[in-house]
Write a structure and sequence with these properties.
seven-stranded mixed β-sheet, alpha/beta, 17 helices, globular, 2-enoyl-CoA Hydratase, Chain A, domain 1
């Protein structure tokens, strides 16, 4: 295995701080966060989220730090998402009588993770993300909300949640609902992945830099502004194959009903549309339906914080249901790739059941939007 040169470049100013699975560097005017679980493609744990947030909050008021960079150790990618095995274990936990009591640990994790996503989005200093290799789920959350999002020829970005009986979160529904036309809907429902060029076309990234120049860029960020350093190495991303498919995507996904979308995809003469229909039909019908509703509601909300509040409601309710547990079991625990979804078809998913995922959590609400409003001097 060839190790990433980024996580092993010389340290100029201070020693590396080993804090769990995140390395915290200070080099010149750069604060550098390295996600350091390469064997799991740097999947996020709760302690990693806390470490990242603490470093960002410290550097925010440190005048000697001009730019922040986040990257992943190893050569496989920035981050493969959250630690879904931990979420699965939490969701199935029970007391001595067998009564299901899970969800508390996941709720705590998501509360801190979503707060981190909001912090990244409003961070006052340049926040550079190296979105090289695999960037999935939670990896999108710690990168695509940044101000300088760099992809490469190796980037494979996606929100694969419907494949494990879940829905896009970490502000993913905010980002995907604002992608051109219905491209974000297509990506969310199929749980597919896209290239760096596609990510730029979707509005999830800004700059294309070949992977062999990332180490050079990281060094340049120590002394130069993010805009200047990136401009020196960025190149044209090439054509987005996904953007070229927008016509049939917009036509087929222009519905608020998942069954209608499937019917349009299956009726399309485009082979890619028919493949999309097949892909969606293998996913959890409940997750697909709730993901679609999440995207439509997110499109009508004004701020990322409002969307994160909504995602928190939905996420918690998935830990109380059957689909997330069954999806993770089939894909990760038993690996039989044969999930038994309940209900089994899109036609069996009732409208009241979808709407129940969005009902208020009462005193368990995340309330990031109200905290953001207070910080901005607004009363909501």
């Amino acid at each position: 295995m060839v190790e990433s040169p980024i996580s092993h470049s010389p340290i100029s100013d201070s020693p590396v701080t080993h804090s769990g699975d995140v390395l915290v560097h200070r080099r010149g005017h750069l604060g550098h966060l390295v996600l350091n679980r390469p064997k799991s493609i740097n999947a996020l744990t709760h302690s990693m989220v806390i470490t990242i947030a603490a470093a960002l909050e410290k550097w925010e008021s440190d005048d000697s730090v001009a730019t922040v960079l986040i990257s992943g150790a190893g050569d496989r990618g920035l981050c493969a998402g959250g630690d879904i095995v931990a979420i699965y274990t939490d969701a199935i936990s029970a007391d001595e009588t067998g009564k299901k009591i899970g969800g508390a640990a996941s709720a705590s994790f998501w509360a801190d993770e979503y707060a981190l996503n909001a912090l990244i989005a409003r961070y006052p200093k340049p926040y550079v993300a190296f979105m090289d290799g695999v960037v999935l789920g939670g990896g999108v959350g710690v990168s695509a909300h940044g101000s300088f999002r760099v992809v490469t020829e190796r980037t494979r970005l996606g929100m694969p949640e419907t494949g494990i009986g879940f829905v896009p979160d970490v502000g993913g529904t905010f980002l995907l609902s604002r992608a051109p036309g219905e491209l974000g809907t297509h990506l969310a429902l199929t749980a597919g992945s896209v290239t760096g060029a596609d990510a730029i076309a979707l509005g999830l990234a800004d700059f294309f830099v070949t992977s062999d120049r990332l180490a050079e860029l990281a060094v340049a960020l120590e002394t130069r502004s993010a805009a200047d350093a990136i401009a020196k190495v960025a190149t044209a991303p090439g054509a987005s194959l996904l953007l070229q498919q927008r016509q049939w995507v917009d036509e087929c996904y222009a519905s608020n009903d998942a069954s209608e979308i499937i019917a349009r995809l299956e009726a399309s003469p485009n082979a890619e549309a028919q493949r999309a229909a097949h892909s969606i039909l293998t996913k959890s019908p409940t997750a697909v339906s709730v993901a679609l509703e999440s995207l439509r509601r997110a499109r009508a909300l004004d701020t990322l914080e409002e969307v994160l509040d909504q995602e928190f409601r939905v996420s918690l309710r998935f830990t109380q249901g059957t689909e997330l547990v069954e999806g993770v079991r089939a894909q990760v625990i038993d690996k039989d790739r044969a999930p038994h979804w309940s209900p089994p078809t899109l036609g069996d998913v009732r409208r009241p059941d979808i709407e129940a995922y969005f009902e208020s959590l009462g005193n368990r609400e995340l309330r990031l939007s109200s905290m953001s409003g207070a910080a901005d001097g607004r009363i909501e």
